[in-house]
Design a protein that fits this description.
Distance between the termini of chain A: 65 Å
Number of strands of chain A: 7
Radius of gyration of chain A: 24 Å
Oligomer: heterodimer
Strand content of chain B: under 5%
Helix content of chain A: 40-55%
Largest sheet of chain B: none
Number of strands of chain B: 0
Order of helices and strands of chain B: HHHHHHHHH
Number of domains of chain A: 2
Shape of chain B: elongated
Largest sheet of chain A: 4 strands, parallel
CATH topology of the largest domain in chain B: Globin-like
Strand order of the largest sheet of chain A: 2-1-3-4
Number of helices of chain B: 9
Number of domains of chain B: 2
Structural class of chain B: mainly alpha
Chain lengths: 536, 182
Amino acid sequence: MAKLPKPEELAKVDFKPPKTGWMDTPANLKPGTFCWGAKAKNLQVVDFPNARDWNPTEDDWKLPKEWEGTVLEAMADRLSKYRSFKLFLDICVRCGACADKCHFFIGTGDPKNMPVLRTELLRSVYKKYFTNSGKVLGKLGGARELTYDVLKEWWYYFYQCTECRRCSVFCPYGIDTAEITLMAREFMNLLGLNTDWISGPVSNCYTKGNHLGLEPHTITSSVEFFLDDIETITGIKVEPTFNRKGAEILFVTPSGDLFADPGTYTAMGYLMLFHELGLDYTWSTYASEGGNFGFFTSNEMAKRLHYKIYAEAKRLGVKYIIGGECGHMWRLIHQYLDTWHGPADFLEVPRSPVTGTVFENACSTKMVHVTEFTADLIKNGKLTLDPSRNDHLKLTYHDSCNTARGMGLLEEPRYVIRNVCNHFYEMPENTIREKTFCCGSGTGLNASENMELRMQGGLPRANAVKHVHEKYGVNMLANICAIDRATLKASMDYWVPAVGVTGVHELVGNAMVMTGEKERTQDLRLEPLPGEEGNE
Amino acid sequence: MTLRDSLSERKENIIEKWFERIIDTYPPDTSRFLKDQKDRFANPVGATISRGLEGIFEEILKDEQDQAKVSKFIDNIVRIRAVQNFNPSQAISFIFLLKNIIRDELTVDVLHNHNADELLALESQIDGLALTAFDIFMNCREKIYEIKSNEAKDMTFRLLQRANLLKEKQNHVADDMNDVTQ
């Protein structure tokens, strides 16, 4: 009879401490934790190098000749161009303050997901080729050569970072690990090492203006679906315009709001709100995407995709822009726009036509966040609200990384929620606001083939939701990011199945009493309102 | 003294050993964090395992276990291990570790008190917990695949809807998919 393994032997896990140090332990790509490689056709569209079909599970990644030189040249270039990059590589003292703050480390237990060690994967190469100590001391000085295994390790772990920047909140030096990941991904893109889930949307965005590749007629027909539902619910026929020159305001939101539930209900909320206000605004079927997956490839690609919003604002001759509930769009507007394209001086500083409030915080970008806009309306008593229509919901609010840490938008969404809902409960202090935990699937990691990774990365957020669910009976998780709306749905389904996901303007659409509306019996999901359950 | 009395006396010791045996399967840097960080929101894996083991053990001590409660505690732990880097057997093996720890801790007591039959009954009970863990593990894995397929279905549904290939808006994607193929 064959010898049966003992329980202790069975319990030896795959990432049981390796006998070799981290530097000599190559990455083991486990299915469920990485995305498929980029397809040649999508890289060709945007003139990215080394476009070819490739498979990360195969040994040969079909790299260009002398790829090491390409990476090192790019590293030298970025070190001279971006002072922050050099500084972040030089000043870390390995204090470990960041180590346990990453949702991927917390969820996977893999030490290479500690931000300090993830950065070390790249820093060790920097040391070898760009510092005297590294050149002389080699491995003893924490330096190592750039090899095929190192490159594969980069690809594996820098696509296990969502650039959420939680670790940077805790770093005493303010080192922004997201910038390290940005650089690593930039180098890898020079070798054609991207993922299908990112390069597909980049290609679509470049040719069609949105991640999904929706053409103008598809976008208008998407919105028409919502209009039918709004009329069913309220009896009001909303008539938005598209690509209308001379409108006062251009409205831009992620295409996920037009395509994926529950984002679609959020889009209905915008439509209802703007109709009720009689806002002179237009949608664009060309600048039809707030998100920018180019940001997950290279700085240059992000810049190329980003400007379409402003080009469209110029073409239509609007005065300013309102932006919808999106995540990284806002980080790019807030932190990158001025550097890339300079202040948008051809537009006017946003001024609410309803309240007269001037949004001076947007005096450079000329773009107002829709929750700022709505919070101002509520503050000035311009909306009639019946929060009891949301009484079937017990809300908590997930701060999206990009809006919370990237632009400090903390109060406005909460103010709106408190005014349109009667039951709102915060998650624990160390999981919200600037310390918010990532959804676990940002920066283009929201594919399906890496679902196990998404669930591990999503655990810290879901764990906090579970707490308020058990303590207060919370059954709905609000947020202001399209990737959150798409990915937290899966995360909740796995970790806390009794909790749904919503955008904030879905809640506004439910609570807002519209002029001339019929008596409402359904919410925006066409489900019965509280008290109407028996009247279906 | 019954076996349960002995277990009850050494409860803290047994749970602590059980916890450490599980946590030590992680790399040293990780296991230090999982043991030392006591904030349950900063360390959900460590906290869930710790609370889960205590809950499971408490139930074992009772004459009549609340199956729903035991399942919940096991679920909380297995749900995490089902997506971490474990083989199926590794994911649920933590249940069996309890047998070894109890044997190590109580062999002398069992011999002294002549309650080997109780020990055998307890071990059978622990085997039962392992079967429960196996069911839960399978549910978790099936859930992962269900989420994956739902994401694909949702996307396809909307694409078909946009392309006006669906007869009417319906709630169930599968029905709509059938409409298209018929």
